[in-house]
Specification:
The complex is a heterodimer. In chain A, strands 1, 2, 3, 4, 5, 14, 15 and 16 form an 8-stranded mixed β-sheet that branches. Chain A is of the alpha/beta class. In chain A, strand 11 (about 255), helix 9 (about 265-270) and strand 12 form a beta-alpha-beta unit. Chain A is about 25% helix and about 20% strand. The longest helix of chain A has 19 residues, at about 180-200. Chain A has helices at about 1-10, 120-125, 170-175, 180-200, 210-215, 220, 235-240, 245, 265-270, 295-300, 325-330, 345-350, 355-360, 405-410, and strands at about 20-30, 35-45, 50-55, 65, 70-75, 75-80, 130-135, 145-150, 160-170, 225-230, 255, 275-280, 305-310, 375-380, 390-395, 400. Chain B is of the alpha/beta class. Chain B has a domain at about 110-400: Metal-dependent hydrolases (TIM Barrel, Alpha-Beta Barrel). Chain B contains 12 helices and 16 strands. In chain B, the strands form 2 sheets. In chain B, strands 1, 2, 3, 4, 5, 14, 15 and 16 form an 8-stranded mixed β-sheet that branches. Chain B has an 8-stranded mixed β-sheet with strand order 6-7-8-9-10-11-12-13. In chain B, a hairpin with a 2-residue loop joins strand 2 (about 70-80) and strand 3 (about 80-85). The model of chain B is unreliable at about 1-35 (pLDDT under 50). The chains are: A alpha/beta, B alpha/beta. At the A-B interface, helix 2, helix 11 and helix 14 of A face helix 10 of B.
Chain lengths: ~425, ~475
Amino acid sequence: MKRFLLGCAALIALPASAQTIAITGGKVVIGDGSAPVENGTVVITNGLVVAAGAGVAIPAGAERVDASGKWVTPGIVAGFTRMGLVGVDAVDPSNDSEARNSPFNASLDMAPAINPDVAAMAVNRAAGVTRAIVSPDAGNAIFAGQGAVIDTGSDLNPVTKAKAFQFVEFGETGARLAGGSRPALIAAFKTALGEASEAAKGIFRDDAMLKRADALALVPVVNGTMKLFVHAESAPDILMVLALKKDFPMLSLVLVGATEGWRVGPQIAAAKVGVLASALNDLPDSFEQLAATQSNIGRMKKAGVEVAIGMINDNEARQAQLSMQYAGNLVALNKVPGATGLSWDQAFATISSVPADIAGLGGEIGSLRAGRKADVVIWDGDPLELTSGVQAVWIDGVKQSLVSRQTRLRDRYANPTEGALPNAYDR
Amino acid sequence: MQLTKFLIGTAVALATVTSPVAAKKKDKDEASAPKSKFNKDPYPSTYQPYASVPTAVTNVIVYDGEGAKFQNATVYFRDGKVEGIETGGALKDGYTVIDGTGKWVTPGIIDIHSHLGDYPSPGVDAHSDGNEATGAVRPEVWAEHSVWPQDPGFSRALANGGVTALQILPGSANLFGGRSVTIKNVYARNVQGMKFPGAPYGLKMACGENPKRVYGSKGQMPQTRMGNMAVNRQTWARAAEYKRKLDKGDTVTRDLAMETLAGVLSGEILVHNHCYRADEMSLVIDMAKEFGYKVSTFHHAVESYKIADLLAKEGICSAMWADWWGFKMESYDAINENIPMVFKANACTIVHSDDANGIQRLNQEAAKAAGDGRRMGIEVPDEVVWTWLSYNPAKALGIGDKTGSLKPGKMADIVLWNGNPLSVYTRPDKVWIDGALMYDAANPKMRPVADFELGQPGEGDVK
C-alpha cells in the first residue's frame, strides 16, 4: 500500500523555477572533462542552464549569487545506486531493492517505488549528489527489473526517467541465481531473450520459463531500445557478456562493476560498451575479482573505454556521497609509481557527465553545458577534496534545503547535556 | 555489505551451549593445593623486527602523533627506535638520508578494529572465521586462532593505508565474542610471527541488534536488549565467582571462558565493546561498575555524540567511522560530526575501519570528520587530528608506551606520505615498521604479495 501512495504522490510534479539566476565569480567546472574556468559565471533560467564558463553575459534582472572563492559544478550524478529504494538496509519493510519472493523479475519497475522521503535523499542532496542511476537488486532470478534515473530534490517527484534500463546479474551472482553455474546462467539468459523475441511477435508458449509480463519487459532489451546493465567482474565474465551480441546483435550493453575490466579494456572499447565501474576495489574479494586494482578505471580510460564510477554492492543505497572521495582517489594514483589514475578533469567527469552519457541522458543532466537541467552545486573548496563542503544546491533550478535528520541531530546535540528541559524539546 | 559480512557464520550456527562454570567441589586435598598457575601466554609472539639501517628523513612536515607539528624537520631513527625530530642544525653523520621535501612524516596508523585475517579475502564461506556463533557467550575463543596470516588485505592496509599495527577482533554475533589479538602489520608464516610483543589481550563484547537477532531468531536467549543485559550480568557474576576462587588460591577446573573474563576483572585484558547507541553504552558503563571492570573503548559508537560528556567523565574511548550510517536501525542516528563532537568534549577519539577497504583510507576518514567538525565551529589542527589515528588507538590497546607516536625510544613505526596525509590526493611513499623498510612505492619488490595471490591474475600489481 505504501507503493500505491508513493505512486500517487509522484504524479504531483512541481514546476521548475522560472527565476533567472547568475552565479558569478566562482571556479566553474562544466563536468564534461574540460578544465575548470576561473572567475566563471553560470546562468540558469526556467530550470535549465543557459550558459556557463568565462565571458557569459548576465541577463538583466537576474538574481546574482556571489561564488567568489568557491567552486561551482554540476550536481554529482551517482553512477550506480539503489538510492530511494531503501530506508534502512536491514529493516526489511523499508527496503524495496529486491523481491526474493515475487513471481516476477524483469518486469519489476523501480520508478513508482522511489521514495523521496528516505533519509538517504536529503543526506546525499546536502552532500552535492543531485541525480542517481537507481537499479533494482536481483532477488530470485538473473533479471532484477527496470531501473530509473532520479533526482534527489526535496519534492515528491523524484523520477527523471523511468524504465531507463534493465539490470541483469552475470558472474558469480548470476550463476547462483540461475541455479548454480555459468552454463546455467547462459541458458537462462538466452532462453529469456528468446522468449522476449517471441513475445515481440505475440507468441507466448505454454512451457515458457518467463511469466508473460517478464517476457514483455525484455522486448525493448532484445530490440535494443532499452539499455541492459550487466553486472560482471572478471575478465572472462566480461568477455562472456560482450559475446552476447553475437546471438542478440541489438543489445545496448552497459557493464557494471567490471573489477577486472582493465584486463580486457581494448575489447570493451571496441565493443563501444560503457562501464559503471567500482572505483577502489583492490582486493581479491572473490574469485571473480582476483586482479582487482585501483588502477582499473584509469587503465580502462586509457584503453578508450567510456567509464564512470558506480557503486554496486558498496552501500549504494545511502553512500553516493562517497562519489567525490572515490574520484579524488583516482587522481591520487597519478603520484603512485606504476599506477594509472585520472586527471582531475577526467575524474570529475566520471561522477557527472559520463554516467549521464552512459544512462543515455547526457543531453539532459550531468554537466553545465547549455540546455541541461540546472543542477548546480557551490562548494567551499575542491569538490573532490576530503575537507570540502557544500554551500548551496539547485536541482532543476530550484534552490534546495541542505537540512537532513543528520544535521538536526547534530544541532540538537551540539551541547549534549540537558538544559531547562530534556533534549526532546530542543528543535 | 558490512552488516551481513560479520554475521555470515551465523547461518551455520548450532545450538547454544553457554559455557558452564566449573563449580567443582573442592575436597581437602584441593583446598591445600597451591594456587592454580595457568600459562597466560601459551601462543607467544615470535615477531622480530626486520633489518634496518639508521635513517634520517629530511625536509618533512611532521605530525608526531601526540598533537605536535614540526616544519622542515628531520626525523631520525636507528635500531628500530625513534631517535628524535629535529628542526635546524646540521644533519648528523651515519644515517641513510631520505629527502622528504614536499612530503609528510607521521607515526603509522593503528586500526583498533579490523577483521583482516579472521574474515580474509577472498570472502568465501570457507574463510568465515570471525563469529563463533554457537552461543552468545564465547569468551573462550581467541581471534588469533582464526587469523589467516596470508590475508591479501594486510598488504593493502600497509601500502595504501600506512597501517603499521592493528587489532583483530572476533565478530559481533555474540555478547562475548572472544579475545582479540593485536599484531604488527608484517607478514609471517603464522600469527605468532605477527603478534605485537607485549600487547595485552582484548575482549570483544557486543551490544544491541546483532546478538539478539542471531540468537533470538533461533528462539534462544538473548532475544531482546534486556536479554542481552541479563546474559551479560549473569556471566559477569559467574566470572567474579571464578576470580574469587582463583584469588583465594582454590584449585579450579580450567575454564577458558572464565579465564578470559577473570583477566578482564583483574585488569589484564581490555574490553572492546561494539555498541552503537548512547543509551546502551550508558548501561554498559553501569554494568562495568557493577562488576568491577573498565571498558577501554566503545566501537562503532555512532551515538557517542549524544553522551560525549559522559564518555569524557568515564575516560572511555570511542572508535568511530566518519560517515557510515543507516545500514541498520542502530546506525540510523549516525552523523558526520560524531568524531569531532566527541573530540570537542575532551573524550578519547579514535577513527576505526572494521573494513578491509576502509582500513586503507583511515587518514581520509579522519580528514572528512575534521572538515565536518570545522564547519560546525570545532577547531582541530591537522596535527591533532592525527592523534585519532595513532596515539589514541595505541593507548586504548595498551601499547601507547611502545608505538603510536614519534617520541624518542618508541618503535620506529613511521610513514612517509607523498603529500599532505589528510588530502585525498596523498598516498604512502614509504612505510617503516620497527625501523625496517616494509613498503616503498618506488620499488615493486617492496610490495608484499600474499601466498594467495601468487600465480594468479594481478600478482604483484600496484593495487
